[in-house]
Amino acid sequence: MKYSEIDVAVIGSGPAGMAAAIKAKEEGAEHVLIFERQEQLGGLLSQCIHNGFGLLYFGQDLTGPEYGHRFAEKVRDLRIEVMLETMVTQISADRKLTAVNSHEGTIHMQPKSIVLAMGCRERNRGQLSIPGTRPAGIFTAGTAQRLVNIEGFIPGKKVIILGSGDIGMIMARRLTLEGVEVKAVVEILPYVGGLIRNEVQCLHDFHIPLLLEHTVTQIHGEQRVEAVTIAKVDKNKMPIDDYKQHIECDTLLLSVGLIPENELSRMAGVALDPLTGGPVVDQRRETNVSGIFAGGNVVHVHDLVDEVSWEAEIAGTSAARFAGKEEMEKEKKIILKPGRNIRCIVPQTISPQHDVTLYARVKDMEENITLKVGDIFSKSLRVVKPSEMLKIDLTYSQLGQLKDDAVELSIESVKRRQNG
Amino acid sequence: MEQVETEVLIIGGGVLGAAVARELSRYNADVTLVEKEADFGWGSTKANMCIVCQGGDALEFRPEYLRSRLVWESIPLMEPLCQELNVPFKRVGELALIRNNEELIKFHKLKSRAEKIGINSHKFIDQGTLRHMEPNITREAIAALYDPNIAIVDPVRLTIALIENAVQNGVKVMRETEVLGISQEANQFKVETNRGSMKCRFIVNAAGTSVDKIARLVNSDDFVLYPIRGYVGILDKNLGDLIKHEIHMRPDAPGQMNILTPSVHGNLFFGTTMQPARRGNCSTTGRIAEIGFQNVRKIVPDLSEKDMIHSFAGFLMFRNWELGWHECVVQDSRRIPRLINVCIGYPGVSAAPATAREVLDLLRKEGFTLEEKPHFNPIRKSSPIFRELSEREQKELFARNSRYGHVVCRCETVTEGEIVETISQGANTMDGVKFRTRAGMGRCQGGFCTPRVVKILARELGQPEGKITKKGRESRLLLYRSKELIEAKI
Prior knowledge:
heterodimer, A: 420 residues, alpha/beta, FAD/NAD(P)-binding domain, Immunoglobulin-like, 5-stranded parallel sheet, 29 strands, B: 490 residues, alpha+beta, Arc Repressor Mutant, subunit A, 8-stranded mixed sheet, 13 helices, 22 strands, 24% strand
């Protein structure tokens, strides 16, 4: 492989990176290269040994490693270049890329296009300012997942999990199966942060207590976690002093949200959307920096891995076309604006000439609503929740009706007609 | 442990103990330093704003105080010290914001005070110049007092460098060694520790937040100290360019402070409250975090809580409850000969270079003869820091050792080579590796590198992973092997 000949460089080999690379190759890019900082392809899939992957993409219920393996085989069959244990340390706006590994040291190249597929990282205690001491025994759920499933260690015997994100709930079940006493999953909201299927299959089926509208107000212990104080919260999420309890435990896991990992994107001057935490992209998943594309959880955190791969395929296709110097039509851009009860939308801009799928998240749970895109689309839904991404398919004929260069996506409450 | 005999015993491996050890290593003396934690600088040294060359920046430094003199005398000493020890030092300067007439008067007083003691570099800055110097700060500031002396350091790295240089010059150090009792025997002290007993002629008690407790062991507690807890928040490196100077705003409520400063590693630190608290209770509270953010937004209104990556509390030992107006303890014990008690309280890091010299003067007064070593080497070489090297240097390093190509901590770009090197120099815990190399200090706070650093520590120390601790003693990270709990149940 000659570094000077790389058409498409993909950063990350998780469900996004591999899907993007495969698609780029299939679209005709000759030299596609994947960078992966770990020892094998798959990103976080290798530690997700539970099932529930691929139901949409493959129509089969797979584990994380199985899902990753299918893509990895294709990466191999298509002769896509792979650099493992290699950390990309820098990219610039003109796509100069620096990486480092222990085989070659520092590596430089300037691929014709780049796909950002770095995924996301977990929010941690520091960002939440969880009060208390600083003992050993506080881990993010994903770190604990790696320790248990890859390294073969159980962090502790009595565990409290703060936050009910999917990894937290999956770890509640995983640790229970390992003989750990999971004392409670504590969630500040009135509903779980992750998927309902995980609430049922990971918590209820294993009789793990779920404390909704509760939070951890203090961590105790000097050397190792000894206990936490848990309090019920009021409507403003403020702890109520009268409803505090002291729970002994030796470990606190955090599953309190994911943040798209965009340190490299920033270096390249990629504009980020403060609402998603990821790059602002158009429907081809191109960022504001020409030739730099993005797909998967680096753009916005998805609910399902299948959606991650699909989105990255769009980025892979576009990157291959860019590398092939295919003329990009100068298209009219329509900006999507989050309206009432909409937290974020991806892509942030679209072209009216093509069919497009929009992904959006709401701010608050709401029942009996109508989801609207300007005047061109409306759909009634029984319930919307921040934990469940909305998917809206629009056709170019619908988009053709738009007169302005901006359109608002919003949730309207349906006023029920009174009987009599 | 065999009984250790030494001439001078330094109790405490914080910045003051380390500075005294390094100063003593210039002379022919048998010196031993004991530290109760697993590594150096883990008390107040690590939990502060990292600001040095203070003294001209606050009215609390009254001329009649020894504490003020030690702070002032340290101003010209700090930069050359950091150069000799090869640790980062950055002269950022301080801007004390002025929002109204009352503050203007206060700062006029401060400027003339500084001039009286020979600090003539303070300047008033008008609003236009201030905007130019710091475009992102509050529009409420109509002017500022500029103190160009103020600088920033990494206090833990400074402390470790002081210790390393002292060891290089013959000082002995013992970690995880806690002093439990001290008795006087003829012309010497007998010191009981958790690792056996020691004999020494002189004691320098630089035990930080325990300095009064140690003094009490030998009935020399002719001073009273009150613990004051301060709260510090750390913001993401992405904001590194938001401000260039240390910015100080007069707090609007008593018991608060309001400081925002760059750090030598590119993060921003903000300090907010100082309140009396039970000693050693370094826990933070939700309320303080909230006040902290409200305060720092008065300096830079655009800051978001999303940019917080970490927060911590640290202790200062004051001689009275009233904040600020206090004297330090750097004195020979009035009751016990050959015992020196050392505690600055605040700002200990700033005052460390002159305090070390002061302690040597006190030792001389107590009858210790100091004879200069002919071969004292003041230079301590820093081991390579991959992210700070030029590309050519990185290549050379990699050619020598390929582990410098393996990035273990992504957020701070720390390589396996650096971690292995720091373990060979004495780091034996997760926090030890973290404070020495910055692995785990970035925005993901060890989420990615923790399992990897545990493995490297285990491999290099020849111990099972289950024995690796966060910070020594009972702070093991991984309590069980997988299937261990299930098998126990069956």
